[in-house]
Structure formats: C-alpha cells, structure tokens
Amino acid sequence: MGADYDPYVFSVEEPRISDSAHVNYDYTVGAGTTKRRELHGTIHVRGLSGTWANEPSDITLNAYKMKFVCDQIDKDYCGFVLLIEATLDNDVIDQKIDLYLRKNRVVKAVVSHGGQVHLNANQVEKLKLFQELLFNGLFGKLFVGCKLQGTKREFLLRDRKGLLWSSSNMYLLLPVEPSSSDSLDSLSINWNGIDACVLVVEILRTVYSTNYIHSCPECLLTCSQSSCQPTYTGSDTLHMANKSANVNTVKDMVVLAIHTGRIYSVLDVMHDKSAESPFDRYKGRQPEFISFADYYSKKYNIELQHPGQPLLLVKQSYQPHNLLSSTVKCEDGSMMVERAHVHIPPELLADLSLSPNVLRSFYLLPSVMHRLSSMMLACQLCEYIGHNNCQISSELILEAITTLRCCENFSLERLELFGDSVLKYVVSCHLFLKNPTMHEGQLTEHRASAVCNSMLHKLGTSRSLQEYIRDSAFDPRRWVAPGQISLHPLPCSCGVDTFEVPLERVHLTEDTNTVLGRACDKGHRWMCSKTVADCVEALIGAYYIGGGLNASYSLMRWLGMDITIEPLLIQEAKRNASLCWCHSKTDEIDILESKLKYRFSVKGLLLEAITSPSHQDSRIDYSYQRLEFLGDSILDLLITYYLFQNHTGIDPGELTDLRSASVSNENFAQTTVKHNLQCHLQLASDALSQQITEYVCCISKIFEDKANVLPLDVPKGPKVLGDILESIAGAILIDTDIDLDKVWGVFEPLLSPVVTPDKLELPPLRELLELCSILGYPINMAYRNKGEMVVAELSLQLEDDLLVRCGCDAHRKAAKAQAALYLLKDLKERGISHAQQVPKKRKDGDSNGRSFCSASEVKIPTLLENDIIRTLSPFKKSVMGQTSYCEPSTISPVEENYGLDNLVTNVTNFRPDESVALPIKMEKGGPRNSLFDLCRILQWPMPRFDSTEEKFRKQISLNGVMGFNRYTSSITLHVPNSPAFHLEGEPRADKKSSRDSAALAMLRALEKMGFCVLTKL
C-alpha cells in the first residue's frame, strides 16, 4: 500500500460552515499565511446582552461585587456592584485583576457574587439616569451640538427620546456604601449619591428645557431650594448651582460644571481670587477677557449672580486609560497624564454628593469591564466547544484567543508553541497506527499536510473561531458603558451589512498598509490569516494543559479532525514488531534495556528501533525509520511540556529557543553518546561507522574535560545518532500502550540536565544576528563556491571598523555558522557580547521605541571618539534625563539650515557615488523609519537618540499640540570612515515626535551631503 491508499490517509471532515458564511475555493488559496489579511467579524458576548432596560418594569438582576485594593495605603477606592441579567461563570467572578496606575501604583480588583437585587421600575430609571450622567460626564459629553457648526447646543439627557440602551450591552455599574466597600459579603447601593445625581439631572432638564441658562442662571438656586440640602448664610456660605454649602465643606467635593457638563473634584477654595479677578494669562500673552465674569459672559452668555464669591480650584477628571498591562504607557512614560487645574465660580458647579474615592473607582471600571467581558467571551467559547467532562479554565481559553497585538501580560504565543507539539504528536500517532505499511517519507508528507497552517485555518474558520480572537489592544476611548454615547465612533465602511463577514475572496487583501485589529462599530476588523491557525494550535495546547490528552482529542475532533487512537491498532503494531525478533540478539537487547532501565514486553520493538536502513537486506525488511518518525513527535511533546511547566516566567521567544536546543538532532546525538547507546546500533556501512567513531571520540573527550562549549573543529553529529534515540522513544510508547508518562520516566534521566535559560547557547548565527539587532550594527552576507564547498563571508560594520570573517563547509548553513563564530569572538575581544546586551535590553526595554535597537546602550571603545563628535546645535540646555520645572516661555524653533552648511563642508570626502532615493512620510514615526531604512541600505550603524524632558505647571502648545511636557531630542549618527554627526531637533509635546524632528533634521543634512534624495509620500 502506497501513498494513494485513501482509507489510510489522514483526513479532515468537511468544514461545518454557518449559513451566512459560504466558502468558495478561491478563499482557501493562501490561507494561513502572514502575507494574507482577512476581514472578520466579532462575536457578541451573550452575558452582557439584555432587553430589560428598554422595558420599564420590575426586574431581578444578579449582583457582582467589585472591591478595589490599592498597594499604597494613602489611596482609597469605593466598591462597586455590577448588576446584570446573566449568571456569570465561576471563572469570571473569581477574578483578581491587577490594574497598573501611574507612579508604580497597582490596584487589585476582586470580583465576587453578591446575590440578587430586586428593582422596581422607578429605581431602574433612576439607576439608568445615574449611569448616563456619570459615564457621559466623565468619559464623554453631556452637551451635544455646537454654535460654530451651526447646530443647537442641547443637554444630552434633556429627554428619554433616542437614548435607548443597546440590547447587546446592558448592565449597571453602581457605587456601594462605604460600609460595604471593604466587605465582599455585604452589599448596599449608595442610593443617597444616586438620588443626588438624579436631582441634578432633573434640575438641568428644567433649566435647559426653558432656556433659562442664558438669561436667568439664578433659577438653578431657586430649583435647589426644593431639595433637602442644608442652607448656610454668612461669609462662610458658598452659593453653588444646586445648593448652598459651607466654605469648609467643599474641599474634595465631586461637582458637575453646569455650563460644560464636565465633572471635577474640588482641590481648594481660592480666597484671594474671585470672578472679578483678572483672567489668567496664557503663555505670557495679554488675556482676551478682562475677568472671569467677563469670560463667562462673552463665551457662555452667563451673567454670574455672585461674582464676589471665591473661586474654586478644581481638577478635571481623567480620561480612561488601559490599566491592564504594566507595559502600556503614555508618551511621557507615565501611566496617566496629569489633567489641568482650573478656576470656576461655585455657582456654576453642582454638588453630586459623591466622595472622591467613588470618582477614582470610575476610572478603573473600563479596564475591569473589558477584562470581565473578555473572560465571559472565553466562557462562551468553552460552552460552544462543549465537552463538559473537560474542565478547562476560562483563563487558559482567554490566553489562547489573545494575540500579542492586545498588549496584555499574556498571549497565545506560549500555548501555540505547546499546541504545535501536541498536534504533531497526535497526528503522528494516528498516522503510524493507521498506516502500518507506509514508510517514513510518506508518513512525514501526510503529517505535513495535516498540520500545515492552511489546514488549521480551514478547521478554525469552519467553526467561526476567527470571531472569538482578540487581536487589538484595549482602547478605552472607544469603550462605552450602557447609556454612554461614543466620542470616537468608527462607522462601518467594510461593505458588509451583517455582523458576520462571509468567507469570500472579496474580503481578502495582501496590502501591507492594511490596519490590523481595529474594529469598526459593527465589529469588523482585518486580521492576519496565520492568526487563525495560531489560535487553533493555542486552543489545542490549552485543552491539553487543562484536561490532558483526551481533552485535546475531543477538541480536535470537534474541529473536524478524524483522529483515532484505537487499542486494536496498538496491539496490531505490537504483533508486527514481534515478527522482527531474533533470538541471537537477546544479549544485545538485555544490555541495552539495562542502560535504558526499562524492560520491553515486545523485544522486537527495541530491535527495530536500533536497526539502521543500511542493515536491510533480503532477510531484514525493517528499520528504525517508522519508529523514528513517531519518536520525533514524542520527544518534542514531552520536552516542550517539561519546559512549558518549569519555565512559566520566560517569554515565548526564549521558550522556543529552549525547545529548539533541547530537541535538536545534535543534542540527541550527544545524549546517545553520553549513555553509550550507539554501540548497539545495527548498521552495515563502513563510512557511517567511521563517522560515528570520529564523533564519539571528540564528544567523549569533551565529556571527560567537562567542557561547556564545543570547540570549532568538532564535527557535526551523524544524524543516525539522534534518530535512534527518537526511535527508542517510539518503541517504548508502543510497548507501553501509548503511555506518555512511562516514556518520560525513561527519558527524563537520559536527557538530564535539560537546558535552562541561563545555560542556553543559541546557534552562532542566531546569536550574532540578535546581538547586531540590539546594537544597531548592519551585517552583510555573501557566498561563493569553492569546489564542492561553500564559502560564506560575513561583514559587520562597527562605528570605527569593518569586521570580515569567512566560513567554509559543504553546506551553506554550516559555513555561515563558522563565520558567525569568528565574528562573535572578534566582538567579545572588543567587550561586546550577547550575554551582556540581551539581559540588559530585556530589562530596560527599547529606549528608542522601535523594533530594533541602537548602539546608544553600549560603550564601544574607539580612539579619539570625543574629538570627532561635533555638536552642531547650541540649543541643548540640559543633560539627558534631567527634569526641570519652569514657566512656559516663547519657543524659538531650530532653523532648518542651522549648522548644516558647516557640516556639509567638513564631510565632502564622504559623499557616496550615488544618492539613495528615499521616500518619507511626515506622520508620526515616518522620519525615523526613513532614516532607519537609509542606514540599512548604506550599511551604517543605526542612529542614537537622547531625549530631554521639561515639565510645565500650565499647558503649552507645541506644533499645535497642547500638553504639560516639552521634549527635545538629539541624534548621533556614525557614518563609517567619518566623524560622528550630531544634531538636535525641535521641541515637541511627546518624545516620539521630538525624535522624528531630530531624524528629519539629520535626513535633511544627509540630503545636502548627497547621500539621499527625499521624496514626500
């Protein structure tokens, strides 16, 4: 039976496609590749859905308590309760979510079940109104329309028309009483604060419905008299928009500005400043308004009734931020940007009767709800997959559907790596048992087609897994609570009317400019085709971790894989192997079993495992090749599982490196020699025997010397030495009736010690490339033939030197490895090593904000370095990293041509033969990317950026951007055989833009020198 014997070929059931998603043949071409982009929909989270908010009636909702605990005792947070119609899974309500705030503050959100809450129709309306007021006031707008745009300015909550809650996003988030904030058991909604906010809404409705705000603002005070708020008189009394308050009680008060709808917290009472005081100057300019009263009169048509009252210093509420990752930061490196402090008359502020800790908790809610909804999505997928006997953690499922683009502290990368091994093993085992007459080449071919990305993509889309994948970072600006109007809508322009996207060719592209991950308002988003295949592998890995091999079998069958590991087929494999037994080999087998510390029930399996194809003749028709095919996947799975479980803190890239080093044929060959297993190999090739003998002599000497690093002249281990270790693993698996634990029990001592991160040695070329990427050094490779040998020439450009090394071998890969080893040795002599730079880079991060790194983080000793660096700009005022507080001043931009003529004069000897046509985008990141491209083209070391930050107490405008920070960046570029060029860019409001300015200045200088010709895109 050959490869065309259909019943034995690995098969996949026909994809089960939903009615709305039809697959055509063209769609499958190129599926599963990184090149292809696909438009997919996003499935709604059922647990957040409901209709009760649009149907005024009594309702009973499930309550889930949220407690916030800060790691710094000086900050308190109010507890909240989530009221929702659905019953949440235990995995969701047992969540403990870390929220990363500025100044290294971490708040832990603990969610627990709080029973049920019964609400009458009137209470439901109050709670909805409270939520609409707070979320729109904090994160949106309470006023719509603008005179400048020709639309009437209206209060958003003036009536109930058109403000219906979406049925796909329906829940309530409410503060609880301070007495129950510290307890997860008790639950008491803060009705006092809610009633006060509802009263403020009713007052504003009355005012804006009669247009009194422009003619009679004192009516607000009149309306407030009907409330039960206390009234104070005398010099200590402040007249607010909805009450009178004692001057000593307003500090820390949460207030709503009735003219803007913004929510503030009161910092202080400014006794030395009133509405009659001169208006604040801005950037030293003469103000447009004479006084604060004049400002409100001219801008808002409001005539203040109590202009003599002291102004209140208030702090504007924060915009929401992504608090779910410690690595997501603002431009200035902080987790949140300080908001402006402003002065407002008390009579324009309405007290909301909420404490500041309630306001602080509101800023946490978008991130908390995003994580909870993600967990609910994972539970929904788990329920969709079914197999209730497999208790898989929703956290594992969430990790399996989360890509790196989400910028979370977890992603599917680790599970994908492990799932790849599980899939490879299951398919290998299936093919081995199902096709006893197929040789190793045929098995490998069928396995490759079964586990390829295009097949996994087909399986994943047949189950609509693409709709569950989380492929973009949480954008809190587009997050909306029920009843909140989005300030950043993204109307759908995808040409699809439904939430699902049909699997058709029209929804595919290979345009690299396509933005991935960003969803429109209907949930449509572009996704890399390979991401679907990666998610399938990650889910397979998650099910193995959570429920063992049987759980993975269940998932793979649910996906459509025809996977069967039948006991009868195992027994048949044993019977076939027993025919290989030769009694003359009894002593040989006994000795080998004693080394393995395992006794075979079917000796023929071990004999087959050590028989080389070269030993086959008319009497022997078996070899280790089929068992080696099976054992390759076994050891890959067992070692990957061991590394996955024992190194949970390392990143996926390092885990991949560990696996590659551990399952390499070279490592297996050394293990074979270490335990002297090669002497039992049955082969009939003198040439192969000679290669094995030479290799064993070299390796044995190294083992005796306990050397940690193999010398350069050690020959590569013959493949057969690694193959027999894999074939023995396959033999033990069949002999134990597919018991992976017993196989690992045999092989763990043989493979020990398994490589660890601190002992990991990367392949020379990989180590060199990674080191050069970190340091920003360009490397060039060239090849030429020398008889039957290949000569690889690697050249590495440093700031002061060009290193060139050659390697020679019959194979190009080995020749490159030799040359890379020589270059690594040259770099080490200059004080540059991978061990020094990589740990530092992983700890410090990329200071230049790009995918590769510059030489700024390593000191390379060069002669006369300080003499050749010329500082061309006199505008640098402070040392890197120094922060100063100063008043805003007029900014004098750096002149475009300042210092460049002098620079050009001094580098005329370094002009290139031909200028590089260099396109440049003027958007953020464009100048830097163009400069990096030029350096790669001309084989120059990457530039170095140094940035200086200045902070201001008042907002300043830089290049049309408002902010409290000013960044100035300088750039140093080393052109080979020339002095280092140093320039400084113009100040900007964020660090990346300032570096773009410096990069643009350098590009214009290089253009004047003739290195490039800039073309704007």
Task: Describe, in plain words, how this protein is organized in 3D.
- The protein is 38% helix and 16% strand.
- It is an alpha+beta fold and 1017 residues long.
- It folds into five domains: 6-42 and 386-479 and 487-559, Ribonuclease III domain (Ribonuclease iii, N-terminal Endonuclease Domain, Chain A, Orthogonal Bundle), CATH 1.10.1520; 212-353, paz domain (Beta Complex); 567-759, Ribonuclease III domain (Ribonuclease iii, N-terminal Endonuclease Domain, Chain A, Orthogonal Bundle); 764-844, 2-Layer Sandwich (Double Stranded RNA Binding Domain); 866-1016, Double Stranded RNA Binding Domain.
- The strands form eight sheets. A five-stranded antiparallel beta sheet has the order 4-5-2-3-8, covered by helices on one side. The chain has a five-stranded antiparallel beta sheet with strand order 14-13-12-11-15.
- A hairpin with a 4-residue loop joins strand 19 and strand 20 (802-809).
- Helix 11 crosses helix 14, helix 18 runs antiparallel to helix 19 and helix 20 (665-674) crosses helix 22 (719-735).
- 39% of the residues are buried.
Topology:
Blueprint: H1 25-28, E1 37-40, E2 59-70, E3 80-84, H2 90-93, E4 96-100, E5 106-119, H3 121-139, E6 143-144, E7 154-155, E8 172-175, H4 178-181, H5 191-210, H6 219-224, E9 237-239, E10 244-246, E11 254-257, E12 263-274, H7 292-300, E13 310-316, E14 341-344, E15 349-351, H8 356-362, H9 365-385, H10 394-400, H11 413-434, H12 440-451, H13 453-462, E16 508-509, E17 525-528, H14 529-559, H15 567-578, H16 586-596, H17 603-609, H18 625-646, H19 652-662, H20 665-674, H21 686-705, H22 719-735, H23 740-751, H24 764-775, E18 779-786, E19 789-797, E20 802-809, H25 812-829, H26 834-844, H27 865-868, E21 870-871, E22 883-886, H28 900-906, E23 916-920, H29 926-938, E24 944-958, E25 961-974, E26 980-984, H30 991-1009, E27 1012-1016
Helix pairs in contact: 3-5, 9-10, 10-14, 11-12, 11-14, 11-18, 13-14, 17-22, 18-19, 18-22, 20-22, 24-25, 24-26, 28-30, 29-30
GO biological process, one term: ta-siRNA processing
GO molecular function: ATP binding; helicase activity; metal ion binding; ribonuclease III activity; RNA binding
GO cellular component, one term: cytoplasm
